[in-house]
Amino acid sequence: MIKLYTICLCFFLATVAVNAQTRYFTKDGHISFYSHALIEDIKADNHQVLSVIDTESRELAIQLLMRSFTFKKALMREHFNENYVESHIYPKAKFTGRIAEIKLNDTNPYETEISGTLSIHGVEKEVSTKAQVRIEADKITLSGDFNVVVADYNIKIPALVRDNIAKIVKVSFELHHKPYK
Amino acid sequence: MKNNRLYIILLLFLSGFYSLSAQDLLKLIEQEQKDTVLYTLATFKATRIAIGQSVETRKKGVLEWQFMSRFWNIPDRRTQSFIADKVSARIGLVYGVSDRLSFGLGGTTWDGIFDGFLKYRLIWQRTDKKGAPFSITLFQNASYRSDSYPNITATDNFRNRLSFTSQLLIARKFTPNFSLQLTPTYIHRGSLLFPEDRQNLFALGLGARYKVNNHLAVVSEYHYLTNPIRAVDTFDAFAIGVNWEASDVILQFYLTNARNIEVGNFSTQTFNNFNFNDGNLHFGFNFTYVLHLKKKR
Is Signal among the key words of this record (chain A) (predicted)? Predict the structure, then answer.
Protein backbone atom coordinates (compact mmCIF):
# COMPACT_ATOMS: atom_id res chain seq x y z
CA MET A 1 0.00 0.00 0.00
CA ILE A 2 2.70 2.42 1.03
CA LYS A 3 4.58 1.56 -2.15
CA LEU A 4 1.58 2.61 -4.20
CA TYR A 5 1.37 5.91 -2.36
CA THR A 6 5.05 6.47 -2.85
CA ILE A 7 4.68 5.92 -6.59
CA CYS A 8 1.75 8.37 -6.66
CA LEU A 9 3.75 10.89 -4.69
CA CYS A 10 6.71 10.60 -7.03
CA PHE A 11 4.37 11.08 -9.97
CA PHE A 12 2.92 14.22 -8.46
CA LEU A 13 6.29 15.62 -7.55
CA ALA A 14 7.44 14.97 -11.10
CA THR A 15 4.44 16.75 -12.61
CA VAL A 16 4.83 19.64 -10.22
CA ALA A 17 8.45 19.93 -11.31
CA VAL A 18 7.41 19.75 -14.96
CA ASN A 19 4.66 22.23 -14.26
CA ALA A 20 7.08 25.10 -14.13
CA GLN A 21 8.05 24.37 -17.70
CA THR A 22 4.49 24.27 -18.96
CA ARG A 23 4.17 28.03 -18.55
CA TYR A 24 5.15 30.27 -21.39
CA PHE A 25 5.38 33.97 -20.76
CA THR A 26 5.98 37.34 -22.39
CA LYS A 27 6.01 40.89 -21.11
CA ASP A 28 6.58 42.69 -24.37
CA GLY A 29 3.69 41.38 -26.40
CA HIS A 30 2.13 43.62 -29.00
CA ILE A 31 -1.55 44.55 -29.11
CA SER A 32 -2.85 47.28 -31.36
CA PHE A 33 -6.24 48.62 -32.25
CA TYR A 34 -7.48 50.32 -35.35
CA SER A 35 -10.51 52.53 -35.72
CA HIS A 36 -11.58 53.45 -39.22
CA ALA A 37 -14.00 56.36 -39.40
CA LEU A 38 -15.15 58.92 -41.92
CA ILE A 39 -12.92 61.80 -40.80
CA GLU A 40 -9.88 60.02 -39.44
CA ASP A 41 -8.28 56.66 -38.78
CA ILE A 42 -6.92 56.02 -35.33
CA LYS A 43 -4.26 53.44 -34.64
CA ALA A 44 -2.73 52.73 -31.26
CA ASP A 45 -0.01 50.31 -30.22
CA ASN A 46 0.87 48.72 -26.94
CA HIS A 47 4.22 46.93 -26.82
CA GLN A 48 4.11 46.15 -23.11
CA VAL A 49 1.51 43.41 -23.07
CA LEU A 50 1.92 40.66 -20.49
CA SER A 51 0.72 37.23 -21.46
CA VAL A 52 1.11 33.74 -20.01
CA ILE A 53 0.08 30.36 -21.40
CA ASP A 54 -0.11 27.15 -19.46
CA THR A 55 0.36 24.43 -22.06
CA GLU A 56 -0.91 21.74 -19.68
CA SER A 57 -4.31 23.28 -19.01
CA ARG A 58 -4.24 25.29 -22.29
CA GLU A 59 -5.19 28.31 -20.27
CA LEU A 60 -4.17 31.81 -21.22
CA ALA A 61 -4.09 35.14 -19.37
CA ILE A 62 -3.30 38.52 -20.94
CA GLN A 63 -3.02 41.90 -19.27
CA LEU A 64 -2.09 45.38 -20.43
CA LEU A 65 -2.07 48.93 -19.12
CA MET A 66 -4.38 51.27 -21.02
CA ARG A 67 -1.87 54.08 -20.40
CA SER A 68 0.77 52.17 -22.40
CA PHE A 69 -1.07 52.59 -25.69
CA THR A 70 0.78 55.03 -27.96
CA PHE A 71 -0.94 57.07 -30.63
CA LYS A 72 0.22 59.13 -33.56
CA LYS A 73 -1.24 62.27 -31.98
CA ALA A 74 -0.41 63.17 -28.38
CA LEU A 75 -3.90 64.55 -27.84
CA MET A 76 -5.50 61.27 -28.91
CA ARG A 77 -3.69 59.49 -26.11
CA GLU A 78 -4.94 62.02 -23.59
CA HIS A 79 -8.51 61.78 -24.83
CA PHE A 80 -8.39 57.98 -25.00
CA ASN A 81 -7.34 57.77 -21.34
CA GLU A 82 -9.30 60.71 -19.96
CA ASN A 83 -12.55 60.68 -21.90
CA TYR A 84 -13.13 57.22 -23.23
CA VAL A 85 -11.53 54.29 -21.36
CA GLU A 86 -11.14 56.32 -18.13
CA SER A 87 -7.83 54.68 -17.28
CA HIS A 88 -7.67 56.48 -13.93
CA ILE A 89 -10.57 54.25 -12.82
CA TYR A 90 -9.93 51.20 -15.01
CA PRO A 91 -6.17 51.13 -15.60
CA LYS A 92 -5.97 47.62 -17.05
CA ALA A 93 -7.54 45.47 -19.73
CA LYS A 94 -7.50 41.75 -19.00
CA PHE A 95 -8.27 38.54 -20.80
CA THR A 96 -8.51 35.04 -19.34
CA GLY A 97 -9.42 32.11 -21.47
CA ARG A 98 -8.49 28.84 -23.04
CA ILE A 99 -6.75 27.89 -26.27
CA ALA A 100 -8.66 25.12 -28.02
CA GLU A 101 -5.60 23.22 -29.13
CA ILE A 102 -1.86 23.30 -28.44
CA LYS A 103 0.28 20.99 -30.58
CA LEU A 104 3.61 21.28 -28.80
CA ASN A 105 5.49 19.06 -31.21
CA ASP A 106 4.10 20.57 -34.38
CA THR A 107 6.30 23.25 -35.88
CA ASN A 108 3.83 24.06 -38.64
CA PRO A 109 1.65 27.08 -37.93
CA TYR A 110 -1.97 26.21 -37.39
CA GLU A 111 -5.22 27.92 -36.62
CA THR A 112 -7.16 27.39 -33.45
CA GLU A 113 -9.81 29.05 -31.36
CA ILE A 114 -9.29 31.13 -28.22
CA SER A 115 -12.28 31.81 -26.03
CA GLY A 116 -12.65 33.46 -22.68
CA THR A 117 -13.50 36.63 -20.81
CA LEU A 118 -12.32 40.04 -21.94
CA SER A 119 -12.43 42.85 -19.40
CA ILE A 120 -12.18 46.46 -20.60
CA HIS A 121 -13.43 49.62 -18.87
CA GLY A 122 -14.73 47.52 -15.97
CA VAL A 123 -17.03 45.49 -18.23
CA GLU A 124 -16.51 41.74 -18.67
CA LYS A 125 -17.63 40.02 -21.84
CA GLU A 126 -17.31 36.53 -23.24
CA VAL A 127 -15.34 36.58 -26.46
CA SER A 128 -13.96 34.01 -28.83
CA THR A 129 -11.68 34.43 -31.79
CA LYS A 130 -9.60 32.49 -34.27
CA ALA A 131 -5.86 32.69 -33.67
CA GLN A 132 -2.67 31.56 -35.39
CA VAL A 133 -0.36 29.43 -33.28
CA ARG A 134 3.27 28.94 -34.21
CA ILE A 135 5.54 26.82 -32.10
CA GLU A 136 9.26 26.86 -32.81
CA ALA A 137 11.99 25.57 -30.53
CA ASP A 138 10.96 27.05 -27.17
CA LYS A 139 8.75 29.82 -28.47
CA ILE A 140 4.95 29.94 -28.71
CA THR A 141 3.56 32.73 -30.86
CA LEU A 142 -0.12 33.65 -30.81
CA SER A 143 -1.41 36.10 -33.36
CA GLY A 144 -4.73 37.19 -34.79
CA ASP A 145 -7.34 39.88 -34.67
CA PHE A 146 -10.92 40.36 -33.58
CA ASN A 147 -13.50 43.11 -33.48
CA VAL A 148 -14.55 44.95 -30.35
CA VAL A 149 -17.85 46.81 -30.25
CA VAL A 150 -17.01 49.95 -28.28
CA ALA A 151 -20.54 50.32 -26.87
CA ASP A 152 -20.39 46.78 -25.41
CA TYR A 153 -17.82 48.01 -22.91
CA ASN A 154 -19.87 51.02 -21.88
CA ILE A 155 -17.53 53.45 -23.64
CA LYS A 156 -19.56 56.41 -24.85
CA ILE A 157 -18.77 58.29 -28.03
CA PRO A 158 -20.46 61.72 -28.19
CA ALA A 159 -22.54 62.38 -31.29
CA LEU A 160 -20.23 65.20 -32.32
CA VAL A 161 -17.22 62.92 -32.81
CA ARG A 162 -19.10 59.96 -34.22
CA ASP A 163 -17.37 60.52 -37.57
CA ASN A 164 -13.96 60.50 -35.86
CA ILE A 165 -14.26 57.26 -33.91
CA ALA A 166 -15.48 53.92 -35.25
CA LYS A 167 -18.21 52.04 -33.39
CA ILE A 168 -16.30 48.80 -33.97
CA VAL A 169 -12.53 48.74 -33.58
CA LYS A 170 -10.24 46.01 -34.84
CA VAL A 171 -7.89 44.63 -32.19
CA SER A 172 -4.77 42.80 -33.39
CA PHE A 173 -2.43 40.79 -31.20
CA GLU A 174 0.97 39.22 -31.61
CA LEU A 175 2.41 37.55 -28.54
CA HIS A 176 5.76 35.77 -28.53
CA HIS A 177 5.92 33.57 -25.44
CA LYS A 178 9.06 32.04 -24.01
CA PRO A 179 9.36 29.49 -21.18
CA TYR A 180 8.66 31.17 -17.86
CA LYS A 181 11.88 31.56 -15.84
CA MET B 1 -1.78 3.03 9.01
CA LYS B 2 -0.52 6.26 10.47
CA ASN B 3 1.95 6.48 7.63
CA ASN B 4 -0.86 6.02 5.10
CA ARG B 5 -2.75 9.01 6.40
CA LEU B 6 0.37 11.13 6.24
CA TYR B 7 0.85 10.20 2.61
CA ILE B 8 -2.74 11.01 1.73
CA ILE B 9 -2.46 14.44 3.37
CA LEU B 10 0.76 15.06 1.50
CA LEU B 11 -0.84 14.01 -1.77
CA LEU B 12 -3.85 16.29 -1.28
CA PHE B 13 -1.54 19.11 -0.33
CA LEU B 14 0.51 18.68 -3.47
CA SER B 15 -2.50 18.29 -5.75
CA GLY B 16 -3.65 21.63 -4.40
CA PHE B 17 -0.47 23.14 -5.76
CA TYR B 18 -0.94 21.30 -8.99
CA SER B 19 -4.30 22.75 -9.95
CA LEU B 20 -3.51 25.76 -12.08
CA SER B 21 -6.31 28.04 -13.04
CA ALA B 22 -6.45 31.15 -15.16
CA GLN B 23 -6.67 33.09 -11.91
CA ASP B 24 -3.21 31.83 -10.96
CA LEU B 25 -1.95 32.92 -14.34
CA LEU B 26 -3.39 36.38 -13.75
CA LYS B 27 -1.70 36.44 -10.35
CA LEU B 28 1.57 35.55 -12.03
CA ILE B 29 1.09 38.37 -14.51
CA GLU B 30 0.25 40.76 -11.71
CA GLN B 31 3.64 39.97 -10.11
CA GLU B 32 5.45 40.50 -13.38
CA GLN B 33 3.71 43.79 -14.20
CA LYS B 34 6.46 46.33 -13.74
CA ASP B 35 5.75 49.78 -12.37
CA THR B 36 5.45 52.34 -15.12
CA VAL B 37 5.94 56.04 -14.56
CA LEU B 38 2.52 57.61 -14.95
CA TYR B 39 2.51 61.37 -15.30
CA THR B 40 -0.83 62.95 -14.54
CA LEU B 41 -2.78 63.64 -17.70
CA ALA B 42 -4.87 66.75 -18.28
CA THR B 43 -4.78 68.66 -15.00
CA PHE B 44 -6.51 71.26 -17.15
CA LYS B 45 -7.76 70.79 -20.68
CA ALA B 46 -6.20 73.82 -22.27
CA THR B 47 -3.06 75.89 -21.80
CA ARG B 48 -5.35 78.56 -20.34
CA ILE B 49 -7.81 77.92 -17.52
CA ALA B 50 -10.04 80.73 -18.80
CA ILE B 51 -8.19 84.06 -18.81
CA GLY B 52 -4.92 82.99 -17.17
CA GLN B 53 -2.27 80.41 -17.97
CA SER B 54 -2.72 76.85 -16.78
CA VAL B 55 0.02 74.43 -15.77
CA GLU B 56 -0.43 72.58 -19.08
CA THR B 57 2.14 72.71 -21.85
CA ARG B 58 1.85 71.29 -25.33
CA LYS B 59 3.56 68.06 -26.33
CA LYS B 60 6.54 68.04 -28.69
CA GLY B 61 5.64 69.01 -32.23
CA VAL B 62 2.15 70.20 -31.34
CA LEU B 63 1.03 73.60 -32.61
CA GLU B 64 -1.92 75.18 -30.89
CA TRP B 65 -3.86 77.95 -32.56
CA GLN B 66 -5.64 80.22 -30.10
CA PHE B 67 -8.35 82.73 -30.70
CA MET B 68 -9.37 84.57 -27.52
CA SER B 69 -12.00 87.27 -27.38
CA ARG B 70 -13.92 89.58 -25.03
CA PHE B 71 -17.19 91.39 -25.66
CA TRP B 72 -18.58 94.20 -23.53
CA ASN B 73 -20.80 97.27 -23.60
CA ILE B 74 -20.20 100.92 -22.85
CA PRO B 75 -22.65 101.88 -20.11
CA ASP B 76 -25.49 104.37 -20.62
CA ARG B 77 -24.86 104.81 -24.29
CA ARG B 78 -27.51 104.71 -26.93
CA THR B 79 -25.73 102.35 -29.22
CA GLN B 80 -26.40 100.67 -32.50
CA SER B 81 -23.45 98.28 -32.27
CA PHE B 82 -23.96 94.72 -33.38
CA ILE B 83 -23.97 92.31 -30.39
CA ALA B 84 -21.56 94.33 -28.23
CA ASP B 85 -20.09 97.83 -28.16
CA LYS B 86 -16.52 96.68 -27.76
CA VAL B 87 -14.68 93.62 -28.93
CA SER B 88 -11.13 92.58 -28.20
CA ALA B 89 -9.45 89.58 -29.77
CA ARG B 90 -6.08 87.98 -29.36
CA ILE B 91 -4.77 85.66 -32.02
CA GLY B 92 -1.92 83.49 -30.85
CA LEU B 93 0.10 80.36 -31.31
CA VAL B 94 1.65 77.93 -28.86
CA TYR B 95 4.26 75.44 -30.02
CA GLY B 96 5.61 72.45 -28.11
CA VAL B 97 9.40 72.55 -28.50
CA SER B 98 9.60 69.48 -26.28
CA ASP B 99 7.12 67.71 -24.02
CA ARG B 100 8.14 70.10 -21.25
CA LEU B 101 8.92 73.34 -23.07
CA SER B 102 6.35 75.42 -24.93
CA PHE B 103 6.76 78.69 -26.76
CA GLY B 104 3.94 81.06 -27.59
CA LEU B 105 3.19 84.44 -29.10
CA GLY B 106 0.18 86.54 -29.93
CA GLY B 107 -1.28 89.95 -30.57
CA THR B 108 -4.36 91.64 -29.14
CA THR B 109 -6.54 94.09 -31.07
CA TRP B 110 -8.11 96.31 -28.40
CA ASP B 111 -5.04 97.25 -26.38
CA GLY B 112 -2.49 96.68 -29.16
CA ILE B 113 -0.36 94.42 -26.99
CA PHE B 114 1.94 91.85 -28.55
CA ASP B 115 3.30 89.17 -26.27
CA GLY B 116 5.62 86.22 -26.39
CA PHE B 117 6.22 83.63 -23.71
CA LEU B 118 8.03 80.50 -22.66
CA LYS B 119 6.51 77.83 -20.46
CA TYR B 120 8.57 75.09 -18.89
CA ARG B 121 7.21 72.15 -16.97
CA LEU B 122 9.62 71.87 -14.05
CA ILE B 123 7.80 69.26 -11.99
CA TRP B 124 5.14 66.91 -13.26
CA GLN B 125 2.62 65.36 -10.90
CA ARG B 126 2.51 61.58 -11.00
CA THR B 127 -0.57 59.43 -10.60
CA ASP B 128 1.30 56.27 -9.63
CA LYS B 129 1.61 57.58 -6.06
CA LYS B 130 5.35 58.07 -6.43
CA GLY B 131 7.20 61.26 -7.22
CA ALA B 132 5.72 64.71 -6.99
CA PRO B 133 2.17 65.20 -5.67
CA PHE B 134 1.79 68.38 -7.74
CA SER B 135 2.99 70.00 -10.95
CA ILE B 136 5.03 73.16 -11.32
CA THR B 137 5.36 75.06 -14.57
CA LEU B 138 7.52 78.15 -14.98
CA PHE B 139 6.08 80.94 -17.09
CA GLN B 140 7.89 83.98 -18.40
CA ASN B 141 6.53 86.48 -20.86
CA ALA B 142 7.48 89.76 -22.43
CA SER B 143 4.91 92.09 -23.89
CA TYR B 144 5.07 95.18 -26.04
CA ARG B 145 2.35 97.81 -26.09
CA SER B 146 2.08 99.18 -29.62
CA ASP B 147 -0.60 101.78 -28.78
CA SER B 148 0.49 105.01 -27.12
CA TYR B 149 -1.08 106.16 -23.87
CA PRO B 150 -3.47 109.13 -24.04
CA ASN B 151 -1.47 110.90 -21.32
CA ILE B 152 0.90 113.14 -23.27
CA THR B 153 3.06 113.91 -20.25
CA ALA B 154 3.95 110.23 -19.80
CA THR B 155 7.29 109.17 -21.21
CA ASP B 156 6.60 106.68 -23.90
CA ASN B 157 9.74 105.26 -25.47
CA PHE B 158 10.34 101.63 -26.45
CA ARG B 159 11.53 100.64 -22.98
CA ASN B 160 8.41 102.12 -21.40
CA ARG B 161 6.23 100.02 -23.61
CA LEU B 162 7.68 96.71 -22.48
CA SER B 163 6.48 94.70 -19.53
CA PHE B 164 7.48 91.33 -18.15
CA THR B 165 5.52 88.78 -16.19
CA SER B 166 6.95 85.79 -14.34
CA GLN B 167 4.69 83.13 -12.94
CA LEU B 168 5.07 79.98 -10.95
CA LEU B 169 2.14 77.79 -11.90
CA ILE B 170 1.58 75.25 -9.14
CA ALA B 171 -1.28 72.82 -9.73
CA ARG B 172 -2.57 69.59 -8.35
CA LYS B 173 -5.14 67.26 -9.81
CA PHE B 174 -6.79 66.17 -6.58
CA THR B 175 -9.29 63.80 -8.14
CA PRO B 176 -9.88 62.90 -11.80
CA ASN B 177 -12.53 65.64 -11.77
CA PHE B 178 -11.05 68.35 -9.58
CA SER B 179 -7.87 70.37 -10.16
CA LEU B 180 -6.62 73.44 -8.31
CA GLN B 181 -3.92 75.91 -9.27
CA LEU B 182 -2.00 78.54 -7.33
CA THR B 183 -0.17 81.13 -9.36
CA PRO B 184 2.30 83.46 -7.64
CA THR B 185 2.94 86.22 -10.17
CA TYR B 186 5.56 88.94 -10.46
CA ILE B 187 4.90 91.74 -12.93
CA HIS B 188 7.41 94.33 -14.00
CA ARG B 189 5.80 97.15 -15.98
CA GLY B 190 7.82 99.54 -18.11
CA SER B 191 4.69 101.59 -18.76
CA LEU B 192 3.85 104.29 -16.28
CA LEU B 193 0.58 106.00 -17.13
CA PHE B 194 0.94 108.19 -14.05
CA PRO B 195 4.13 108.86 -12.12
CA GLU B 196 2.48 107.33 -9.03
CA ASP B 197 2.20 103.97 -10.74
CA ARG B 198 4.24 101.11 -9.37
CA GLN B 199 6.60 99.29 -11.66
CA ASN B 200 6.85 96.06 -9.71
CA LEU B 201 3.68 94.28 -8.72
CA PHE B 202 2.91 90.98 -7.10
CA ALA B 203 -0.23 88.98 -7.64
CA LEU B 204 -1.55 85.61 -6.56
CA GLY B 205 -3.79 83.72 -8.94
CA LEU B 206 -6.16 80.98 -7.89
CA GLY B 207 -7.75 78.72 -10.49
CA ALA B 208 -9.90 75.62 -10.33
CA ARG B 209 -11.53 73.16 -12.63
CA TYR B 210 -14.34 70.72 -12.00
CA LYS B 211 -15.15 68.16 -14.67
CA VAL B 212 -18.89 67.75 -15.10
CA ASN B 213 -18.51 64.96 -17.62
CA ASN B 214 -15.81 63.66 -19.93
CA HIS B 215 -16.09 66.62 -22.28
CA LEU B 216 -17.33 69.49 -20.14
CA ALA B 217 -15.68 71.25 -17.20
CA VAL B 218 -16.55 74.26 -15.06
CA VAL B 219 -13.62 76.59 -14.42
CA SER B 220 -13.03 79.67 -12.30
CA GLU B 221 -10.14 82.03 -11.69
CA TYR B 222 -9.32 84.86 -9.32
CA HIS B 223 -6.21 87.00 -9.51
CA TYR B 224 -5.45 88.85 -6.29
CA LEU B 225 -3.14 91.84 -6.69
CA THR B 226 -1.20 92.53 -3.47
CA ASN B 227 0.00 96.07 -4.30
CA PRO B 228 -2.32 97.76 -6.80
CA ILE B 229 -1.30 100.97 -8.55
CA ARG B 230 -2.24 104.15 -6.69
CA ALA B 231 -3.37 106.59 -9.39
CA VAL B 232 -6.65 104.85 -10.21
CA ASP B 233 -8.86 102.24 -8.60
CA THR B 234 -8.28 98.76 -9.94
CA PHE B 235 -10.02 95.51 -9.18
CA ASP B 236 -8.93 91.91 -9.04
CA ALA B 237 -9.63 89.93 -12.17
CA PHE B 238 -12.22 87.19 -11.88
CA ALA B 239 -13.60 84.71 -14.37
CA ILE B 240 -16.11 81.88 -14.31
CA GLY B 241 -17.05 79.68 -17.22
CA VAL B 242 -17.06 76.35 -18.95
CA ASN B 243 -14.51 74.43 -21.00
CA TRP B 244 -15.70 72.04 -23.62
CA GLU B 245 -13.50 69.83 -25.73
CA ALA B 246 -13.72 67.11 -28.29
CA SER B 247 -11.27 65.89 -30.86
CA ASP B 248 -8.83 68.72 -31.77
CA VAL B 249 -11.00 71.60 -30.60
CA ILE B 250 -11.33 73.26 -27.20
CA LEU B 251 -14.02 75.88 -26.63
CA GLN B 252 -14.03 78.08 -23.53
CA PHE B 253 -16.93 80.36 -22.60
CA TYR B 254 -16.75 82.59 -19.55
CA LEU B 255 -17.87 85.75 -17.82
CA THR B 256 -15.19 88.07 -16.49
CA ASN B 257 -14.35 91.63 -15.59
CA ALA B 258 -10.96 91.58 -17.35
CA ARG B 259 -10.71 93.45 -20.62
CA ASN B 260 -7.04 92.90 -21.33
CA ILE B 261 -6.07 89.44 -22.46
CA GLU B 262 -2.33 89.54 -21.73
CA VAL B 263 -1.71 88.33 -18.17
CA GLY B 264 0.40 91.22 -16.86
CA ASN B 265 -2.20 93.71 -18.00
CA PHE B 266 -5.38 92.07 -16.78
CA SER B 267 -3.80 91.37 -13.38
CA THR B 268 -2.89 95.02 -12.84
CA GLN B 269 -5.12 97.11 -15.09
CA THR B 270 -8.67 95.89 -14.57
CA PHE B 271 -10.60 99.07 -13.88
CA ASN B 272 -13.99 97.55 -13.25
CA ASN B 273 -15.32 95.02 -10.79
CA PHE B 274 -17.15 91.82 -11.62
CA ASN B 275 -20.89 92.41 -11.68
CA PHE B 276 -23.77 92.22 -14.11
CA ASN B 277 -23.92 95.93 -14.94
CA ASP B 278 -23.35 97.24 -18.42
CA GLY B 279 -19.70 97.95 -18.96
CA ASN B 280 -18.58 95.62 -16.21
CA LEU B 281 -19.80 92.30 -17.49
CA HIS B 282 -17.52 90.91 -20.17
CA PHE B 283 -18.29 87.83 -22.14
CA GLY B 284 -15.23 85.82 -23.08
CA PHE B 285 -14.79 83.16 -25.69
CA ASN B 286 -11.66 81.16 -26.50
CA PHE B 287 -11.34 78.89 -29.47
CA THR B 288 -8.33 76.59 -29.52
CA TYR B 289 -7.39 74.28 -32.34
CA VAL B 290 -4.66 71.73 -31.77
CA LEU B 291 -2.56 70.72 -34.73
CA HIS B 292 -0.08 67.84 -34.60
CA LEU B 293 2.83 68.80 -36.84
CA LYS B 294 5.06 65.91 -35.84
CA LYS B 295 3.32 62.59 -35.72
CA LYS B 296 4.96 59.65 -34.07
CA ARG B 297 6.18 56.92 -36.45
Answer: yes
In angstroms, rounded to a whole number, what is the distance separating the alpha carbons of residues A55 and A179?
Answer: 10
pLDDT in tens, B70-100: 999 888 777 788 878 899 999 999 999 999 9
**Phi and psi torsions of B146, nearest 5°:** -85, -25
Task: Check CB contact of A23 with chain B, cutoff 8 Å.
Answer: yes
Q: Contact B47/B53 with Cβ under 8 angstroms? A: yes
ipTM confidence:
0.81
Q: Would residue A15 count as lying in a domain?
A: no
Residue pairs between chains A and B whose CB atoms are closer than 8 Å: 117
Structural domain including A73 reads 23-179
Decide: B205 and B165 in contact? Cβ < 8 Å. no
Asked whether A53 and A62 are in contact (CB, 8 A), the reply is no
- Amino acid identity of residue A41, one-letter, is D
End-to-end CA distance of chain A: 37
Select the residue of B20, B60, B215 nearest A83 (Cβ to Cβ): B215
Q: Is residue A82 part of a domain?
A: yes
Q: Which domains does chain B have, with CATH numbers?
A: 62-292 (2.40.160.40)
Q: Does A74 touch chain B (CB under 8 A)?
A: yes
In chain B the first and final C-alpha atoms are separated, in Å, by 71
**Nearest residue in chain B measured CA to CA from A85:** B214
Report the number of distinct structural domains present in chain A: 1
